[in-house]
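User: My advisor asked me to double-check a structure prediction for Outer membrane protein assembly factor BamE domain-containing protein before group meeting. I don't want to rely on an old file, so could you generate it fresh from this sequence?
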Amino acid sequence: MRQFSRHSSSGRILLAIGLSALVLGASGCTRVRTHQGYSIDKLLVDSVQPGIDNRASVEGTLGRPSFISQFGEQDWYYVSREMRALAFSNPKPVEQTVLRVRFDPAGNVAAVDRMGLDQVAHISPMGDKTPTLGRNRSLFDEIFGNIGAVGAGGMGGAGGGSNTGGGPNGS
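Assistant: Sure, here is a fresh prediction for Outer membrane protein assembly factor BamE domain-containing protein from the sequence you gave:
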C-alpha cells in the first residue's frame, strides 16, 4: 500500500488555490463586448425598397423600430451599438449603426439611410462647474450669509409693522 504524507496533500491544495487565484485574477482583465439595441440583418435591411414597401411591410420585415421621430410618424429609427470595456472601466462604443426609414405622407417608404459612429457628436463638458446666472457666493457666504436676517421685513418673518387697520385690535 502506498501512503501519502501530509506535506504532499497540503502542497497540492496550495497549488490548486494558487492556480484558482491566478485564473480569477486574469479573468478580471478580459475585454467585455456587449451589444445594445436592434440586431441588424443586412439581408433584411436590403430587402426594404423605397416606393415598394410601406409601414406595414417594414414592420413585418424589420420589426418595431427603436424609436419613431417626434414630429409626426415620418421617420423610423433602428439603433444598433457594439460596446467594449476592459474589466471595470467605462464602456466605449466600438461600432454603431442607425438605420433611418423615411416615409412619405401616404405611408410608403421614401428612403432608407444608414449612419455610423462617425455621425455621433462628442460633447465635452466645460470644466467641473456649470455656469449659472445669479449671485456668485462662496461657501462661507452660503453658511453665514443669513445671520442677522431673521425677522427682517420682506423675508417672510413677522417684521415690525404696526397694526393700524380696521381689525379688532386696530381702532
